[in-house]
Design a protein that fits this description.
2 domains, 205 residues, mainly alpha
């Protein structure tokens, strides 16, 4: 499957999952520090709904802080939209060509998959990301990329116990591949999901 089709499938499947959440789950905290599930869902579709001039205007209003800008927009849109709209924005834009500023389609897939896991892991939902999508992202794990998201992988070997994948050298950190992916993206996972000397990772958004 090509990357565009993987992204479209991920968005449609996740929109279906969002449609099945309860009102309580929508208001529950995610793995993104300070964001509820509905805030993450709103952020996931931000790139489809704002033009480049609009993004630049909000960036200026946020005094040049990307984090401040995305936080404000996510909270605003999450408050203004119904849960049906939040899910629909993903489904209706399954083949939208948006990509993050760097990384192209791989980064777009990572944005969808990782933020999806921010929701499902926090809620305790057992959603397994299809292996073909997961491997694309695992193959892209680097020390530099992990540092960007606040994770220091120095001296660690990430070792998946559910598929043939490892990264780095040093003290083993073992667990499901998608949990290791989250760790490499700076997420602080619920206790017990990874085995080994787990360093503190940033609670990224």
């Amino acid at each position: 499957m090509d990357l565009t089709s993987m992204i479209a499938a991920e968005r449609r499947e996740f929109a279906d999952l969002l449609d099945g959440l309860t009102a309580q789950q929508w208001e529950a905290p995610s793995l993104c520090a300070g964001w509820r599930v509905r805030d993450v869902a709103a952020h996931m579709s931000m790139g489809f709904r704002y033009s480049l001039p609009q993004v630049l205007a909000h960036f200026v209003r946020a005094r040049g802080s990307l984090h401040r800008m995305t936080d404000r927009l996510a909270r605003h849109d999450a408050a203004a939209a119904s849960t049906g709209q939040l899910a629909g924005w993903l489904r209706d834009n399954a083949r939208h060509p948006w990509t993050p500023p760097v990384g192209g389609l791989v980064s777009a897939l990572g944005h969808d998959v990782v933020h999806g896991l921010d929701i499902t892991v926090a809620l305790g939902l057992d959603r397994q990301v299809p292996e073909d999508r997961l491997r694309v992202l695992l193959d892209g794990v680097t020390h530099k990329g992990a540092r960007f998201f606040g994770a220091d992988l120095t001296g660690l070997q990430l070792r998946a116990d559910d598929l043939d994948w490892s990264f780095g050298t040093g003290t083993p950190l073992t667990g499901p591949a998608q949990d290791l992916l989250l760790f490499a993206f700076g997420r602080r996972l619920p206790e017990g999901r990874l085995r080994g000397a787990v360093p503190r990772a940033a609670a990224a958004g």
